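Troubleshooting: if your tokenizer reports a length mismatch, compare your output against this known-good record of 190 residues.
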Amino acid sequence: MLIAILALYFTCGNTFDMLVLMETAPVALNGMLWWGMSAIKVIWVLLFIGFAIKVPVFPFHTWLPLAHVEAPTAISVILAGVLLKLGVYGILRINYTMLPDGVFWFAGALALLGLINVIWGAMCALAQKDLKKLVAYSSVNHMGYTLLGMSAVIAASGMNGSNLISAQAGLVEQYFKCLIMVQSLQCFLF
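Known-good structure output:
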């Protein structure tokens, strides 16, 4: 991700201003080849990998269940409700607006990753005995639906649905965590 950010900085006029980058990046990177691929595609993939760790997308999701189990419930609520959605926001705000040509190229892979997230997250959530891990894997599942919405780049309704699912998943996961906290307090008090 750092390499992609520095590449954008040096090829687009030595600036981090997002409005300037949105205007100059597609023009400055058009026709430029890196490692035999379009520079737009390489930068898009590098940025996506950085955000995919935060979202969490399937091969990069392994940190989430461990973080949910180890964190106190209040921190876990923030983790599930806010932190994961920042990765979605980063993809939509940076990848989609600054490098729109890369979006159409990567849409099929994004749909496949979203489908894997949906199935894998649901199967792992069904197998959990720990409630915190169950919520973590349901978060992976919900983010898969968000990725599926993002992959529908041609339809504006897909993008709107992706944002709506992301917000809804944040609320649902926070409610789950609050219920876990109430249940653990009941067990402690009685």
